[in-house]
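In this section we walk through a basic example: taking a raw amino acid sequence and producing a predicted 3D structure, encoded as discrete structure tokens. The instruction is simple. Fold the sequence below.
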Amino acid sequence: MHDKRNKYDKRDCLEIGQKAEGVFAGLAAQRGWKVTAASNYANINDHWDVRIEKGAERYRVDVKGMKRLSRRDSSVQDEWIWIELHGVREHDRGWLYDGKAELMAFEKEGSFVIVKRDALIKLVEQLVDVNTTVYSARDARYKIYSRSRRPDKITMIETEKLAGIKWDEWPKS
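The resulting token sequence is shown next.
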């Protein structure tokens, strides 16, 4: 079995993500969706975690657990979300542009906000200054953050900005 942890995950990012995927899958099943986990290949290369199906509806979903604002932070938060514009691997254009998921599910403290990936692309392109690159996570809000000697490009947007493109929101309780 291939290890899903990338070489830059020095803490618990993988575990946080896997826990969020499990909670999301449980919520989907409670709502009557048939849930199928992605293969390791699809998870790593096609950027989706679960397929949900109900009647004629069928979606691949990339589930995003809550993240820290900075690697130094002790806890995760839900006011800002990280968006990957280019992955940590040279050829990987990242989950926003290269992902095969139709839906993105962003974890909040009490719910998952679900958006269509194509609507998220449009929103990010409206909000983010792609001509400004910063080198500190703290400065990544609406700008491109690039880490030294790494190909990844990420940005942060406020979670509340998803309200205008929300497909659904599933409370955790």
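Looking at the output, two observations stand out. The two ends are 33 Å apart (CA to CA). The helical segments are 13-30, 40-45, 94-98, 117-127. In the next section we compare this with other chains.
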